[in-house]
Here is the input.
Amino acid sequence: MKTFVKSTRVAAFALAATLAVAACGSDTATDIATETVPPASDSTVEPNGGAAVLQVSESLEVAGEELPPLEDPNADTAVGLQAPVITGQQFDGTDISIGGDTDGPAMLVFLAHWCPHCNDEIPEILKLRNQGDLPDNLNIIGISTAVVEDRENYPPSEWIVEKEWNWPVLADTVDAEAFQLYGGTGFPYTVILNSDGSVKARTSGSSSAAEIKDWIDAALLV
Here is the structure.
């Protein structure tokens, strides 16, 4: 049985924003580095049909050590390490966890609603789903992160519905703590975990459906 403890790590949203800018086509880091996110409206719609009560998790429960930042996906120092177990909320306020033991491998997809490459990536993953090209035992969870109210496609609870994403979604905190704890350096950011919660592969940036399939297949063979 895992014991969750409140994370004492103070994440810097400005850092996450700066790291993500290059992958999302922005010209300057200051575009989002100084933004803050006000409380979300309760009038939006959650993907499973319930009313959204939040756009970001107020806090996260974290067990385990943060992963090193992703520098080289082909020589990733995080492979084999245990990923932190993080519990936050879905848009409807119910708890959801990433990391830890699961009934199969997990693919975690970190997405920012305003990021053009994230908007390109989702249809490619959905194409694999619709073609039946995703492994049956692969657990897919989205993480909505780096939320900024006055950027494109806000609120994320509506955006994710419009993009036809129908897998569970963890709402990251205002400070993008989950993204940072998993070593994210750009968006979109994807992590594959083994069923024991250890890291199998990480990558950043958008890809075609065929490239995503090849990457998943290679990761699951290791």
In short: The chain has a mean pLDDT of 84. Residues 63 and 87 are 9 Å apart (CA to CA). The beta strands are 5-6, 61-63, 85-89, 95-98, 106-111, 139-144, 169-171, 189-193, 199-204. The longest helix spans residues 116-131.
